[in-house]
């Protein structure tokens, strides 16, 4: 009987998947039938079906699954991620709403979080960005300042043992960061494109790079709009980790924390215990989850 092999999905294009096998080789694989709920980061069992082709027989249970969704469709982003690294930069300016949406998704999937403030070689805009991130530091998030153009040594140890997904808006320096961490990244990307025979298309999809035996990095373009339609209002509330001790304390059980009397969150903002911008972001995201 033909042997099954273990591997991990490193890229996907349509129904074609690229699997890295235990020996490091890359094999294009298809799923059986119309099934296509496989995503970058998935751990799979495959069988060879031809010289340079395989079939995915099984997907291992996932430890986490990131998706984004609007009212109409849901899109898988990556599986088996243990850490999300949110890349923002001193310039151009970044959206704290996008950051917050990533944090909500991270909380929902029990992921470690690291916020990287890039381009700190630019002192004036870096100071402004640092200020914008202050509320996030204050509630316990780890913000690492660096310059991807100069040195990424402080980031390296924080990747060990993790499958980290890098997310960030365009222009934050995500590619520069990946190239600094993985000098072979461009070659690896070319190899993925060649094997999948999809040319530049793969660049719009997530890609998994291996850092060492226990650590991987997933580059995941296009999370400008991190739709959270698949999460309930309660799950979104919980993603604002500093709201925790106030939840359930409002006068009305179905309080929307907008202008209801006896709202524990509004009171906490008035007292300065919760940052006003954070409550505003909650109201914004709750009103428009997608
Ligand atoms: N000053 C400075 N510029 C940087 C740094 N990192 C990246 N840049 C510049 O910022 C610009 C955007 O960097 P990219 O790495 O292409 O950004 P990206 O996030 O991958 O953007 P997309 O490709 O649009 O997704 C480039 O001109 C980089 O040279 C840094 O640490 N300091
Ligand atoms: Zn309330």
What does this structure look like?
The mean pLDDT is 91. A 6-stranded mixed β-sheet has the order 10-9-8-11-13-12, sandwiched between helices. It folds into 3 domains: 4-59, Nucleic acid-binding proteins (OB fold (Dihydrolipoamide Acetyltransferase, E2P), Beta Barrel); 65-219, P-loop containing nucleotide triphosphate hydrolases (Rossmann fold, 3-Layer(aba) Sandwich), CATH 3.40.50.300; 233-287, Ribonucleotide Reductase Protein R1, domain 1, CATH 1.10.40. The protein is built from 7 helices and 13 strands. It has 290 residues and is an alpha/beta fold. It is globular. It has helices at residues 96-108, 123-138, 174-181, 185-196, 233-238, 264-270, 276-287; strands at residues 4-13, 16-21, 26-31, 43-50, 53-59, 65-69, 74-79, 83-89, 112-118, 143-145, 163-168, 207-212, 215-219. Monomer. Associates with 30S ribosomal subunit, binds 16S rRNA. It comes from Gallionella capsiferriformans (strain ES-2) (Gallionella ferruginea capsiferriformans (strain ES-2)). This is Small ribosomal subunit biogenesis GTPase RsgA.
């Amino acid at each position: 009987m033909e042997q099954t092999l273990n591997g991990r999905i490193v890229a996907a294009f349509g129904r074609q998947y690229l699997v890295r096998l235990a020996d490091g080789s890359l094999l294009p694989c298809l799923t059986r039938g119309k099934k296509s709920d496989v995503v970058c980061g998935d751990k799979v069992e495959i069988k060879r079906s031809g010289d340079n082709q395989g079939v995915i027989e099984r997907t291992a249970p996932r430890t986490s699954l990131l998706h984004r969704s609007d009212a109409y469709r849901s899109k898988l982003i990556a599986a088996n991620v243990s850490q999300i690294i949110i890349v923002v930069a001193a310039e151009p300016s970044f959206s704290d709403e996008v950051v917050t949406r990533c944090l909500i998704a991270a909380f929902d999937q029990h992921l470690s979080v690291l916020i990287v403030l890039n381009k700190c070689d630019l002192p004036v805009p870096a100071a402004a960005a640092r200020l914008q991130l202050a509320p996030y530091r204050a509630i316990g998030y780890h913000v690492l300042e660096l310059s991807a153009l100069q040195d990424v040594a402080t980031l390296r140890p924080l990747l060990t043992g993790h499958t980290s997904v890098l997310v960030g808006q365009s222009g934050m320096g995500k590619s520069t960061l990946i190239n600094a961490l993985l000098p072979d990244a461009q070659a690896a990307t070319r190899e993925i494109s060649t094997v999948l025979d999809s040319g530049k298309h793969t660049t719009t999809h997530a890609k998994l790079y291996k850092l060492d035996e226990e650590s991987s990095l997933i580059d995941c373009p296009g999370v400008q709009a991190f739709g959270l339609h698949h999460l309930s209002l309660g799950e979104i509330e919980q993603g604002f980790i500093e709201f925790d001790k106030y939840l359930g304390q409002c006068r009305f059980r179905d309080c929307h924390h907008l202008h209801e009397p006896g709202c524990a969150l509004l009171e906490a903002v008035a007292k300065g215990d919760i940052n006003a911008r954070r409550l505003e972001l909650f109201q914004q995201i709750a009103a428009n989850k997608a």
